[in-house]
Amino acid sequence: MELDEAICEQARLARDPRFDGRFFIGVTSTGIYCRPVCPSPHAKRAHVCYFPSAAAAADAGFRPCLRCRPEVAPGTSAWRGTSDTVNHALRLISDGTLDEGDVEALAARVGVSARHLSRLFMQHLGTRPIAVAQTRRLHFAKQLISDTDLPMSQVALISGFQSIRRFNDMIHKVYQRSPSELRRLAEADKPRLSTEEYLFQLAYRPPYDWESLMAFLSARATPGVESVLDGRYFRSIRLNQHSGTIEVGRVAGKHALQVRIRFPDPAHLLTIITRLRSMFDLAADPEVVSKHLAHDPLLAPLVGRFPGLRLPGAWDGFEMTVRTILGQQIRVQAATMLAGRLAEQFGVPLGVMASHGLTYTFPEAANLAAAEIHGLPESRKRAIQSLARAVISGRIVFNAELTNGDLPECFKAINGIGEWTTQYVAMRVLNDPNAFPAPDRVLRRTAGQGALLTKGALLERAEAWKPWRAYAAMYLWRG
């Protein structure tokens, strides 16, 4: 990725939070790399160089700053012109593909040679795939060291290191301090938490329209599984037969969300954090999206009214697909009520951790494959059961390998899943910024400014919104 050094310099001197995570600053006089928002005194321009990613800075021999903590910067995003191949590979790396495999296996999964994939990474991110994976692993280890009281042996294992010795060596090499020394530096600011409770801050690039996101999630919150109270989002979660809860809200005075996780097995913390980053669209670059969409006279007023509108993701692909099937051709409130009934009848009770209206987890595929679901049209009941059986058999796997192009093939054998459902799932589950449920009547009427456009006419109008059609849909729904 080509960086404009003049723009980077202006952003550095202004500590502009809109550029946080879009590039990193290497200071040659100290050997440290920082975020553009770093509170440290500005280095002289002659001692500064710029990198398109944290991994590129680390690969060049710079170590992370302990003040601005590059490990908590907004993630490498798909919004910076990177290729579909690089984006797919980045999702797989975030899913842990390189923790146990190699670049050849990663390249095979995205359909290119290892040499070509490395060339694409150098072009767009300034470093190699293995360096991206190593930086991801080190950054999460540093976050666990600073933000939790987990034993160092668990930190090493959770963040993907094969041995505690390797973990200690890498941390000391990168940070020039031992893990214990890093933890002592963070002790003063660390809150006291109960057992099996973890607190993290996840940064975003401003602006962030939190109120619109909460309104969207609140209207669709499955009773007993999700709730929105006092501007905070709560939900139950279930991973590998363990249940817990998450709480997400804004941090006053910072461009960050605070995440409170209550979960018995810390080995799943990286999975939980990765899902939450996608769910709350924390890698988005709102300035790029809004600048593009504001060229359209229909969208320009909405972009101005709702700066930083995000694309809400989903906690679980199966859950969201079931929820989308329930919502076909009925009002949001009715679909929410049906989802609550389904969760109450077939979900797993939370027990002693129940709070904020959370009483059970959403049913898993095994609970719905042959369930006697009452109160639904027969076609939707069959669609949900067919989906559940496809997930159990492994024919449909909601993971980082799944792309929007795969969904029609995955869903074609399920009667009752059409284009609207497929595109909505691509928006919410795959975080595809260009997904677009063109059959949606609200979109067709809003885009037609009262007149109901045909699907073809809406698609023609939406050509100008690419590659951000999903955000355009969110603006039209919000308006």
Describe this structure in words.
The structure is a single chain. The protein is an alpha+beta fold and 479 residues long. Among the domains are: 5-54, DNA Methylphosphotriester Repair Domain (3-Layer(aba) Sandwich), CATH 3.40.10; 78-189, Homeodomain-like (Arc Repressor Mutant, subunit A, Orthogonal Bundle), CATH 1.10.10; 197-285, DNA-3-methyladenine glycosylase AlkA, N-terminal domain (TATA-Binding Protein, 2-Layer Sandwich), CATH 3.30.310. It is 45% helix and 11% strand. It has helices at 5-14, 54-59, 84-94, 97-100, 103-110, 114-125, 129-147, 152-158, 164-175, 179-186, 210-219, 269-279, 286-293, 300-305, 317-326, 332-346, 365-368, 378-393, 407-411, 419-428, 441-447, 455-462, 469-478, and strands at residues 24-27, 32-34, 48-51, 63-64, 197-203, 226-229, 232-239, 242-250, 256-262, 348-349, 360-361. The protein has a five-stranded antiparallel sheet with strand order 5-9-8-7-6, with helices on one face. The model has no long low-confidence stretch (mean pLDDT 92).
Give me the secondary-structure topology.
Layout: H1 5-14, E1 24-27, E2 32-34, E3 48-51, H2 54-59, E4 63-64, H3 84-94, H4 97-100, H5 103-110, H6 114-125, H7 129-147, H8 152-158, H9 164-175, H10 179-186, E5 197-203, H11 210-219, E6 226-229, E7 232-239, E8 242-250, E9 256-262, H12 269-279, H13 286-293, H14 300-305, H15 317-326, H16 332-346, E10 348-349, E11 360-361, H17 365-368, H18 378-393, H19 407-411, H20 419-428, H21 441-447, H22 455-462, H23 469-478
Parallel strand pairs: 2-4
Antiparallel strand pairs: 1-2, 1-3, 5-9, 6-7, 7-8, 8-9, 10-11
